[in-house]
Model the fold of this input.
Amino acid sequence: MRQLIDEGRVRRGGATIRDPNHRVKPGEDYEIDIPQPKAAEPLGENIPLTVVYEDQDLIVIDKPAGLVVHPAAGNPDGTLVNALIAHCGDSLSGVGGVARPGIVHRLDKDTSGLLVAAKNERAMTSLARQFANHTIERAYKAVVWGSPRLGEGRIETQIGRNPFDRKRMGVLRQGGKEARTRYRVLERFGDPDRPLASLIECRLETGRTHQIRVHLTHLGHPLIGDPSYGRSRQAPRPKTAEQAAAYETVTNFPRQALHAGILGFQHPSLHRTLRFERPWPADFAALIAALRSLKPG
Done:
């Protein structure tokens, strides 16, 4: 009943009840709007997909930023799973479970890039094993505030739920899961002595929730645009209109600047390695262009 009240579905005498502690008295009449029951299984939806590769065993998608991978609280539909069900039809039915058919791994809602889904149990088992054994090649492009002192390195920590905010992950001294990320600085932007930002390639050796976002924040260089782990840095005072426009693009980037650009794995039945690479999307390209415009000379 609390949820029905919160959704404004309970009324008395034409007035909507807003207080969940409202006392009901004998003889009072109430009108309750009962919502239609939701389907127990996700339904197919006509959501456009960028298909990079597909055969009878699997499908590789270039996921846009903003698309949730599977239904969950707050996102009951409009997800990649709904799109895959519509696209793949019965071949995806029941693969890997009813709620998340075909899903072997995830990308955060606002991370763009490559994702593979299984279309049968054999492919699901094979890909899940490869992910568990950390033999999948996964490389990401990330734009971070500042620049790591070392041009490349390896971050190794334990990651688990933040004890002060259960919606976030964090680096823990004990009790978390082992997490390893290799990184390499590809380009620095702005003042060479104190870069405003950097383009980094990250390669996952493990696959923990929010791993790259947590690790780069732990390194002291959070992702630009990350609402959970990043903090917007104050840009230098612009000297030209072009600089002002560039700073505006950077400081107002609307999502975490993270793109899954490379994905490689052993095909479950072809017994050969497939490797895919996708360029970053238009918003990411605009961010890079803005940062490059800040380079001296």
The CA atoms of residues 41 and 99 lie 6 Å apart. The chain has three domains: 2-32, 40-132, 134-297. The helical segments are 2-6, 80-88, 121-132, 211-218, 241-251, 282-292. The longest strand covers residues 177-189.
